[in-house]
Amino acid sequence: MVKGLVRLIVCALLVTACSTRPTAPPVFDMPAQDPLRDSPAEWLWQSGVNARDNNDLAAAGRYFERALEVVPDSSWLYRELAELRLRQGDPRAAEGLARKALRHAPGDDSYQSALWQLIATARQRQGDDAGAEQARREAEMLLRR
Predict the structure, then answer these.
(1) pTM for the whole structure
(2) pLDDT at 145
């Protein structure tokens, strides 16, 4: 009985030790030049963040989408919505939104690299391994500049 329990504990420890945690997206501050900053839509964005943090993903999406109607050139909002769609299990939408974020992104290499990583994750979840690898190379290239 004791041997069986010890084996069970050892197996559980091995499985736990071999498991990997999903990588969290990098944390950035909103770029100073993003049109969302100090705009009327910033309140909508913050409401979306609060809803997301409370796991109300549908409400978060509505807030982010409304904010984008007010500030359609905000890379930050497109990135927020892309990460949300990925979390909701819609990698195709996440990729499209991340690409829009990239089009509006400021010239910050680390921020753009993070967007390429987001695209890589979305492509991977769509089963596009080659596309994911290409996006990872883009991300790495930006970090080497």
Answers:
(1) 0.79
(2) 84
